[in-house]
Specification:
This protein is α/β, with parallel strands linked by helices. The chain has 2 domains: 215 residues, Spore Coat Polysaccharide Biosynthesis Protein SpsA, Chain A (Alpha-Beta Complex); 82 residues, no CATH class. 43% of the residues lie in helices and 18% in strands. Helix 5 runs antiparallel to helix 7.
């Protein structure tokens, strides 16, 4: 069975989220709401959906989301029972009517062998107006293939569009990055465990971007700090799986984040430099030399 987990904090669009659950064509799911010590108690809204879908509400007295959002996700997952699959749905995002139905159809596909399933998405604004075209994905791809596509800006991704096996989540948990930026991206190649991610392009999740959402309010500096940590983990653990052009792309992205974040790990920088010699094209290598040696010099100087 599917558990839909909502780490709740903001009430602004929560009725829309709950209504989208009530409108599902398949009601074979249970909702778990973990209130992150919000000042806006949502229980009066939940009364309107009693007997429409199964739901449990729990209020945490300590706010974790402000500092450790991934820990809030994890303690909300801990509320679930024996459900085998988990979706973490944002408290302002909206499910298309057939998301749950398409999920169960996906499980019945011939030779199904995925730990992670994802839906198509449309970005919406505060007035529920579409803010983007429909984003779809290859039917099957590995977690690292997805990561490279995102580094190339060929796709977008957000937590709410994914459904994953609880057993693989338990083996890996979420990696904490500042404000949880890239924590979900890292999870998909962890949770997929070399198996391919299955895309349900017929199922649509509407992702809201507003002044109240994290992506609409967090500073660029926090996002760049998280990006550096995320790229470093790919660099350390996944580099050998990439082809030459992908390795070059990752090194270019890392170079940019190193300078933005004043990265000073001398051992990493030296190894990074020699990999640049191997994978950068000549013109890019010339441009990088001056910046990299300046970075190495300042590392010694400080």
């Amino acid at each position: 069975m599917l558990a839909i987990v909502i780490p709740y904090y903001k009430i602004n669009y929560f009725r829309d989220t709950l209504t989208s659950l009530a409108n599902q064509t398949c009601k074979k799911f249970k909702v778990y709401i973990g209130d992150d010590a919000s000042s806006n108690n949502p229980e009066f809204l939940l009364q309107d959906f009693v007997n429409i879908f199964e739901c449990e509400y729990f209020r945490f007295e300590e706010n974790l989301g402000e500092k450790y959002l991934t820990k809030q996700w994890e303690r909300c997952i801990d509320l679930t029972a024996d459900e085998a699959w988990i979706m973490i749905l944002g408290d302002d995002d909206v499910l298309g009517e057939t998301v749950v139905e398409e999920f169960y159809k996906g499980l019945e596909r011939p030779n199904f062998a995925s730990n992670v399933i994802r839906c198509a998405t449309i970005v919406i604004d505060e007035q529920n107006k579409t803010y983007s075209d429909l984003f779809t994905h290859p039917e099957l791809e590995t977690g690292i293939e997805f990561s490279i596509r995102k580094l190339k800006h060929e796709t977008r991704s957000s937590l709410s569009e994914y459904i994953f096996k609880k057993e693989t989540y338990r083996r890996h948990k979420f990696t904490h990055f500042p404000s949880a930026f890239y924590s979900d991206d890292k999870a998909w190649f962890d949770f997929s465990e070399e198996k391919k991610i299955l895309s349900l392009n017929e199922a649509v999740v509407y992702i809201r971007v507003s002044d109240f959402s994290l992506s609409g309010s967090s500073s660029n500096k926090i996002a760049r700090e998280a990006e550096c940590q995320y790229l470093l983990l790919i660099y350390v653990h996944q580099f050998h799986k990439l082809n030459s052009s992908e390795k070059g792309l990752l090194l270019i992205k890392l170079e940019d984040t190193f300078y933005f974040n004043k990265f000073k790990d001398i051992k990493v920088l030296y190894k990074f430099y020699f990999r640049c010699l191997l994978y950068f094209k000549f013109d890019k290598l010339i441009k990088s030399h001056k910046k990299l040696f300046r970075k190495l010099y300042h590392s010694f100087d400080t």
